[in-house]
Structure formats: structure tokens, C-alpha cells
Amino acid sequence: MFDSQQLKCLRALLDVIIPEDDFPGAWEAGVGDYLRRQLAGDLAKLLPAYQTWLANLDDEARAVYGADFAGINPQQQAALLSRIEQGAVEAVWQIEPAPFFREIVEHCAEGYYSDPGNGGNRDGVAWRMIGFEVSG
Amino acid sequence: MKVAVSTRHSDYDAIVIGSGAGGGVAAAVLAEAGKSVLLLERGRDLSFEAVGRDHLRNQRMAVYGHNAGPDIDGNPRTLEADSFPIPVGEALGDLRLLRPHEPGYQNNAACVGSGTRVYAGQAWRFMPQDFRMASEYGVPEGSSLADWPIGYEDLLPYYEKVEWEIGICGDHRTMTHLPTYDKPYPMPALPLPHKSGIHKRGLEQLGWQWLRVPRLINSMPYNDRPGCINCQQCVGFACPADAKNGSHNTTVPRALRSGNCTLRAEVMAERLACSAGGRVIGVTIIDAAGQRQTLTADVVVLSCGAVETARLLLNSATLQEPSGIGNGGNQVGRNLQGHYYPGAAGLFPDVMFDGVGPGCSIATCQFNHGNDGIIGGGFLGDEDIVTPVTMWKRFYPPDAPRWGIEAKRFMRDNYRRINDVTGPVQEIPSPQARVSVNPKVKDKYGIPVVHLSGATHPETVRTAQFMHERAKEWLRASGAIKVWGRPPPRYLSGGQHQAGSCRMGEDPAISVVDPFCRVHSHDNLFIADGSPHVTNGGFNPVETIMALAWRTTENIVAKW
């Protein structure tokens, strides 16, 4: 589904969208698992767009900071995504950068905040964090 | 009216098509009267586990599918592109091709019990004024607003039957918008969650009427089933305690216990079967294995919901009725309506969440009627517990950060502090809001699918804007430090509150069924779902659907 470079980029990206603090970041909470399941199922049509967007994100990081996305520091990663969100990019993108970023953010939140049965929100950790207590 | 018994022997006395709110009542009343009944359901008989607890695929948050049918593949509908404010589904020429979980499809659950399997069970009587909207307000240009041919008093005994026999909890003393209840509810209201108490004080501060929301939920053990355990995943899901009262655990089991009813799930009604003279003699079905079969009965009751009942009539053309059964007046499928749901969300300084479900406990009927310059109105109520991902998608403030540590902190700090209030607006019907069939597109059974077109009358949008402002006022009075939300734009509504498509009336030229919900052109064909509703109240319609079905079916039995 993803090659090792894309996977490294995806992991770094998800952990900027939902970073680790005293609760796990997106990757540790299983959002990567959620996404892999969705991209093999309901979101299969988006897999090529994901692959292209991630490759372009690395291009953008190289153009601005001279290293791939996983290789720059978290402040640089966040600054880069803020500019991408505004559509202000340096590299040549094969896909409209801003709208697809919003989609990735949405998928990341779905994985993090929905029920653990979807593959993310491991052991209900996001629900413990926000105080959604489940009984019955 | 006399139901003529056919001269040849029928397979059943009655066939009821659809096992939701209306069909369950029809099957129970007929079977308990000693009639042999076949109850058909196109969906499956789902266990609690089969319905599941998927927060992205349920009847309330259907991002990638839903949990109570119909299956998302093989059951398409088409939609006029203008009927929805954004492109939905996929393009099919000028139209949109929709799957059941997609916006604009006007879905209602397809399983034994239909929507009652997964609903919130809000149990409202309509108000007396709701039955005479044209007399109260006049008829806006371009609308088909009309009075019902029956009134509140006609349904009252049946409202009481539903409250006692299916099981509704509430506090009749707070229902001050209605004539005094002679019989209280059989069960007290559910416990008041912390946030509902705060919203009650907000209403008191505004001087607006408040009431305890009546629900088709056991607040204590009733009818041999347990009371609610106040879980957090009620609306959109099945009940883990079997305390939510739907057709699947009340009327359908009653019908089956009588020994006179056969339930067949996973069976699709293709068309009504008619004699050479055009009289309805039963229904042609297709089962899960694809086998087609014609089953006969002296009486047929349609309870497929306002969209599918209209489709079945339109797909059943005969020589005598070439544009569809009951459609001589070109009325079948018109006036489709559901409910607009204006509301607003607010951020509160203190934690509102205490985990006591289901949640929607306080409402106001201050604005159902009597609003200056507005036609009708609706109630506003607080909300059932909102799942975290639903909070993110529906009630998250539009100006809050959506990614990065700030977004994570925002959810962490405020999930328990955000609350919304909302409620259904009585729609002003439009004859252009319409169910027809699209002969070019077939479902998995090969049956022409539903085509949806038109939109609600603009007056509905105006009322919704008015109610949106009231929702914001209420949130501020309850102490919200920030409120947000937008009133809904104009679109075609229906959904799980779908109604109106086979209007009840005295005049066959402008209605489909008579005041006892008999299709005008037939002596043995009846409708027991939301289709006959002339208007749909500013309330969740299920108690009215059940009460009307009860009245209709008692009348069938009485005249048999």
C-alpha cells in the first residue's frame, strides 16, 4: 500500500496532526492502522491520491528545508503544513495541496476519536482523554 | 366502507408490507383480531451485536455506511441535482446517483422494526393545531398546505394506546402545550442528566415553557422487559438492555404470539398483484435467493415508509391505473416532507457531560405555534449524548483549530463542555417535493428505483431560521460563553421522519387515501406509515404514525 518512504512520511504527518503529549499521538493510538484499513476498503479510491500527496509533501519539505518531511523538526513540520493549508507551496504538486490536507486531517480525527473497532483509538485512549465514558 | 372478501381462497387474510412503526402495529392489531397475517420485511432481523457500535457507520453518523440497512450496494436512488445544496453521491447525467447512507437519499432503516430498531424513541403527540395548519395560517403561495381530515380528538384514544401498550415514559404534567392528559404516561420520565438541568434553568430564566421529553423507552421494568441503563450510545444504535421500545420487541412479537402472524424478513415487494379487473389481490415478492412469488390476501397494508410506499404504488401500474395504483389524481409521491432540524451549539464554562444517557430530556414547545409572521414552528430540545467523532464532525466550532496540539487540547478540554439544542420544524409542504420512479435505474432485484425531486417550500426555511435564533437564545440563557451554527439552506427533506407522500383527504383529486387511510380507488388497500400525514407536526412523528396505524387497522377489523 505504502512504500517505506511514504510510510515514514505518513507517520510523521499524522503525529503533527495529532501530536503526542501526556496522551498518545495519532500513530501510537492506531490511526495508521485505521487508515490502512480504510484505504483498503471504503477509501480505496483515495489511495493513489494519498501516495501522491505524501510524495509531494516530501518534495515540499526538501524545497523549503532541504530534507524530507520526517527529517525536519516538529516546528518546521507544523510551519510547513500551515503554509500548505493556505495553499502556499514551493514545490510542484501533482494534487491540489490544501483540500486534500483537510481530508487527511478529517480521516486522522476519525481514526483517533471513533470507536476502537475501527482500528484507531487504541483501547479507547482518546475517549479516556476527553472523558467520553462508556457503560453498557 | 365494506372490505369485500375475494371469491377465491387467498393465502392470507392480510399482508402487511414493512415491519416498522406502522407495520408492526398493523400486524399486531390484525393478528390479535384473529386474521391470518403475513408480515413482510425487506431487511434482516438484526441482533444487538449485528447492529453494533460503529461510530462511523450508524443510522445517526453514516460516514461510510450504516448499521440497520438497507445494504449500501444494490439499493440506489436518483436525485435531481437541484434538490440538494451540495453535490452528493455520483453524477449520472444531470442527476445524482445515491447509495443509501449518502445525504439526500432520504433513508430509513431496513430491518425488522425498521427505524424503531435504532431510533431515539422520542414520543410526541402532535398538537391540535398541527392537524389544521391551513385553517390556522392560510395557504402560502406554491404550497400544498392543508388541514388533515381528522383531528387530535380522533387520534387521542390511539395515542393513549401507544403510550400504554408500546410503552412511553414521560411527565404528562409538563405537557402544557397540549390539552390535559386524562391518562398519565405509564412510566415516569428518565432521570434528568446534569446538562438537562442546566438547560431547564435556561428555559426558566427566559420564561419559556419546558417539559420532560417523552420517550419510547422503559424508564423502569415494563411489559416484561427491563428499564433503561442510561448508556451513552442510544440514538443510531440498538439498545443493550432491550429497554428501547420498537416494533421489533413490542408489536411484532405480539403479532407472532397470537399464532396468526408469519414474519418473513429479507423479502422485497416488487409490485402489488392485481386481478384482471385491477383489484389488489396480494403482492409479488422476490426473496433473498432471487425467487419471485405471488402471495395473495384479502387486504393489503402498505407500511414501507413514505418513500418506498409511494414507489411500490407507482411500480404497480395496471391497465385500469396505468400511472400507478392510487395515482389517478397524479398525487402519489407528492408533498414528501420530513423535518428541518435547525439548532445551535454552545461552549459552556463548566462540564455539562455526566454520562447519563440517553440525554435528550428537556424541551420547550414555546415556539410550535403563535410565532409572529411565521407559519408554524417546532419544539427545541437538548441532545442525546453526542459521540466524540460526531462532536468533531457536527458540533465542533468552525473557528477552532482542527489539527496540531491546539486541536487535541481543544477536544480534550471541551468535549464535555459543548452542548447543542435542536428540534424539528414543521415543514410547509410543496407538491414539487416528490417521489417518482426512475425506470432507467434498477435495484439489485431489477426493480425501478426511487427518483427524488423538488425541495421544501421556502416558508420552511424561514421558520427554520427563526428557530435557529431561538436555539442560540436558549444556549446563551443556559450560560453558554460562545454559540455557533448555521440555519439549514433549502433542500429536499424526508429522512427517518419521512411523511406526506400519500396524503389523506376526502377528495380523490387532491389526496391518495381516505380519512381511514384506505387508497381511494381500492376497497382493500390501506396505508399504515407516515405517507398519509397531510402535515408532519413540529415533532418526531413516530407516535403519530403508530397511533394512526392503530386507528386505521382497528377500522379495517371493525368493517371486515
How does this structure look, described?
The complex is a heterodimer of chains A (136) and B (560). With 136 residues, chain A is mainly alpha-helical. Chain A has one domain (4-130). Chain A is 57% helix and 0% strand. Chain A contains 6 helices and no strands. Chain A has helices spanning 4-17, 31-39, 47-65, 74-85, 97-113, 125-130. In chain A, helix 3 (47-65) crosses helix 5. The longest helix of chain A has 19 residues, at 47-65. Chain A is globular and about 50 Å long. The model of chain A has no long low-confidence stretch (mean pLDDT 97). By secondary structure, chain B is an alpha/beta fold. Chain B has one domain: FAD/NAD(P)-binding domain, CATH 3.50.50.60. Helix content of chain B is 22%, strand content 16%. Chain B contains 11 helices and 18 strands. Chain B has helices at 21-32, 48-51, 133-137, 152-167, 194-206, 251-257, 305-314, 388-395, 405-414, 458-477, 542-559; strands at residues 12-17, 37-40, 77-80, 90-92, 95-98, 211-212, 261-264, 267-274, 280-287, 292-302, 343-347, 362-364, 380-382, 418-422, 434-442, 448-453, 482-484, 525-527. In chain B, strands 1, 2, 7, 8, 9, 10 and 18 form a 7-stranded mixed β-sheet that branches. A 6-stranded antiparallel β-sheet of chain B has the order 6-12-13-14-11-17, covered by helices on one side. In chain B, strands 4-5-3-16-15 form a 5-stranded mixed β-sheet, covered by helices on one side. The longest helix of chain B is centred in the C-terminal third of the chain and has 20 residues, at 458-477. The radius of gyration of chain B is 22 Å and the shape is globular. In chain B, 60% of the residues are buried. Residues 1-7 of chain B have low confidence and may be disordered. The A-B interface holds A 16-19, 21, 23, 38, 42, 78, 81, 102, 105-106, 108-110, 113-115, 117-118, 126-127, 129-136 and B 52-56, 63-65, 229-233, 240-241, 351, 353, 355, 387-389, 391-393, 402-405, 407-409, 411-412, 415-416.
